Amino acid sequence: MNFEALISDELYQLNLVLWMLQPVPHSGNASRRASKQGQPKAASFPGIINPVFRKAGFHLYAIEPSLPLPLELREKLRISGVEASYSPCPDVIIKSGANEFAIIECKKSLFGDGAGQPADHRRPQRQARGLFLNEPGVLSGALALGPSGVKATTVLYLFPSNGRADQTEGIEAINAALRKAGFATASLSAFALEVANKWVVMKSQRVKIKQPAPTWIPGAAKSRTWQVQKIDRADSDPRPMYIIPWIPRGGAGSDGPAKRLFGSRIMAWVVMQIGPAAAPAVLTFKVDDALRHATMGHFDRWENKEEKNLLRKNARDMIRRRIGKAKPESLITDASAVPGEITVNLADDAIKAAIIEALRGEIDAGWNDNQQGALFPEDGGPA
Q1: Core-most of 43, 47, 122, 258, by most CB within 10 Å?
Q2: Residues 110-169: pLDDT tens digits?
Q3: What are the phi and psi torsion angles at 262 (to 5°)?
Q4: How far is Cα 24 from Cα 42, in angstroms, rounded to an integer?
Q5: Helix segments in the chain, DSSP class H
C-alpha cells in the first residue's frame, strides 16, 4: 500500500482524529495483565490507534460545524479589506474539561498566504482567516455557549510531512497579518504525519510567530512525536474502520473499501432489528438509529446538514432497495408515517428469511455516491 498517499488522504486524517479521541484500549490492570501474558499493549497491534487526544483530556465536541462570525466582526473585515470566510466549517472541534477548544483542519497539504494569487484561488486562505478569528469570545458566540463558555482556542492543522522545515510559514503569516491588522485571533498549532519504522507518527510543529503558547495542546510548549498507528507489512492496509465514511472533497469520496464497510454496518444494524422478531410482525425503525450505530454514535455530532441529509437519504434508499428487491410487498408506505422511518411487514418466516438474506448481500461501493442533495421533504431535518 502507498502509505504516503494514505496519510495525505483527508478522510483517513479525519478518522484518525476521531479514533485519537476514543478511550484508551488498554490501561492499568488490563495493560499489566497483557504484559504478563506476553501480549503486546493494544497500541502496538497493527491498525490500533494511539488515542493521543483522549489521553490529553480532549473529547469530541462537533464534526463539521458552521462557525458564523458576528455581524460587527464581518463589518470590520469589510472595512479593513480583509478576505475571510464568514461561516467557516472546520473538520472537527474538540474540547477539554477546562473548556479549552481546538478547531481541527485536516489538509492534504498546507498552503501559502495567498499573496500574488488570483482571488478565486484564495479559498484556503479565506477559510484559515475565518477559523483564526474564532478567538474565545467569537467561538463562544458561534457555539452559543455564553460569554464564559470558551476559555481558550487554538486552530490545529493536521497535514502530511514533506520534509520541509517551513511548512507552516503560510498559515503563520495569515495569523500574524490578522493580528497586525488589529484582529484578535486564536492560537495556531500544527501536527505533521509521516511514516517511519513501521509506524504512522505524528509530530507537533514549533511555530515561529509570537502568540500565547497553548500549553494545553500536546507538544505545543515542546515539540513531541507520537507513534499513532502501527503498520504490519508493506502490503497491509492499516486504515481503521472509518467512523465517518465520506467527505465530498478531494479523492476521498471514491474510497470503495471504506464505504463498503460503512454500508455493511448499516445493514448489520437492520438485520439486528429484524432477526429477533417473531413472524408475523410489523417492524418500524429509524434510519438515524442505523447511522448512529454505524458511526459509533458520532452521527449526532456531525453538524454539516447538507452532508448529513444526503447520508441519511442514501442509507434509507439502500435499505429500501434491498428489502424491496427481496420482498417488495413487505415495504409499508403510509402518508402519515413519521419522516425517516421504514416500516416492514414480516408476514411469515419465509419473507423474514428472504429479507435478511438480501440485507446481508455484498455492498455496492457506490451506495453513497449520489451527491444530488436532499430530494425528499423529510430530509429537511433529523429523522
Answers
A1: 258
A2: 999 998 888 888 999 999 999 999 999 999 999 999 888 999 999 999 999 977 667 899
A3: -65, -45
A4: 9
A5: 3-7, 10-19, 28-36, 52-55, 71-80, 123-132, 136-142, 169-180, 256-274, 287-294, 305-326, 349-359
